[in-house]
Amino acid sequence: MHASAQVLATPLAAVSSDRHLWTVSEVLALYELPLMDLLWQAQGVHRRHFDPNAIQRSTLLSVKTGGCSEDCGYCSQSAKHKTGTERERLLPVDEVVAAAKLAKEKGASRFCMGAAWRGPKDKDLDQVLDMVREVKALGLQTCVTLGMLKEGQAEKLKEAGLDYYNHNVDTDAEFYGQVIKTHTHADRLDTLDQVRDAGLKVCSGGIVGMGESRKNRAAMLVQLANLEKAPESVPINNLVPIPGTPMAGVDRLDPFEFVRTIAAARITMPTSWVRLSAGRQEMTDELQALCFLAGANSMFYGDKLLTTGNPDVERDEALFERLGLTPV
Ligand code: SAM
Ligand code: DTB
Ligand code: SF4
């Protein structure tokens, strides 16, 4: 049998059974399919589990910007790189609530609060818990991304009404050490376990376009898909190159390779929300449409991500209109 035909047969059978543990070679074989075959397969999986025209929208707010102790090679907020991002204090709760209200009015269903920390101190966590309670009370789903958690912190977040905790694996175990030296890939997995054990929904994905290989990308997806339970939400970020970071000059990823990554995420995690995340501002509407066809069904919505730009709401509303998409 032709290699690509064989691959077509395997995952379709796999997704109809309860659980399939993916191997890196299976996911690499997906990447190697002709693009149209891959899109067809991904769209088939997508339609079995989701309304193909419905897109979930999350608005992000950086509640604590800059001055981070970690050395993540892509990040504008690391104190180790000279990026021009100023260190700020933790925002007051009322400012966060005002931003959340606005996000709701504009049509977001989830509000994600991000902090440039290695992990939260207990005192800071108390303030974040207030943010979660108040944002939740507005009728929005809540998500926070605060770095690595210590014992008991995930439970406190759950009690405050948090829905999702975002903590990306970012890349595979092999490439991780070339991107970040101040914590390990295993540390990330440990926090993800704590989040899951506390009964929170898991949001975890990664970044592509950092100079990693296709095998690294495939291995990252395998890692996510084979977690005890796949993350409910899987953000796929395209590197936003930040001047002053070690990754400022990395070669841009072929946009079709990005689309393939979305499709492979959709096929390997059939019931997860796959989010078209950072890097959308540089994408044409046509490329975004291809990403939705490949199975992306979530996006960041609002003019800003954490420190970088995102398409403005007017452009996204026009895109929804042109493509006949509906917000979730
Ligand atoms: N400090 C916390 C952490 O690292 O988990 C939360 C905030 S951190 C900025 C959240 C995620 O944003 C990272 O894990 C990474 O996936 C993404 N990110 C950060 N900078 C990025 C960039 N320049 N391009 C694409 N994604 C980026
Ligand atoms: C995620 O996966 N991407 C978001 C969110 N989770 C926290 C962050 C993207 C950050 C892009 C660079 C910036 O704005 O600083
Ligand atoms: Fe800090 Fe998170 Fe940026 Fe890493 S990705 S430097 S942990 S804010």
Describe it.
The protein is an alpha/beta fold and 328 residues long. Helices cover 43% and strands 14% of the residues. The chain contains twelve helices and ten strands. Strands 1, 2, 3, 4, 5, 6, 7, 8, 9 and 10 form a ten-stranded parallel sheet that branches. β8 (273-276), α11 and β9 (298-300) form a beta-alpha-beta unit. α2 packs across α9 and α3 runs parallel beside α10 (255-268). The longest helix has 16 residues, at 122-137. The radius of gyration is 19 Å and the shape is globular. The termini are far apart. The structure holds S-adenosylmethionine, 6-(5-methyl-2-OXO-imidazolidin-4-yl)-hexanoic acid and iron/sulfur cluster. Residues 60, 76, 114, 145, 166, 168, 205, 235, 237, 240, 277-278, 305-308 line the site of 6-(5-methyl-2-OXO-imidazolidin-4-yl)-hexanoic acid.
Report Rg: 19 Å
Terminal Cα separation, in Å? 41 Å
Which descriptor suits the 3D outline?
Answer: globular
Structural class: alpha/beta
Q: What amount of the residues lies in strands?
A: 5-15%
Helix content: 40-55%
What would you call the quaternary organization? single chain
Mean pLDDT: 94
How do the helices and strands follow one another from N- to C-terminus? HHHEHEHEHEHHEEHEHEHEHE
Q: How many runs of DSSP E, i.e. beta strands? A: 10
Poorly predicted regions are 1-16
Bound molecules: S-adenosylmethionine, 6-(5-methyl-2-OXO-imidazolidin-4-yl)-hexanoic acid, iron/sulfur cluster
How many helices in DSSP terms? 12
Largest sheet: 10 strands, parallel
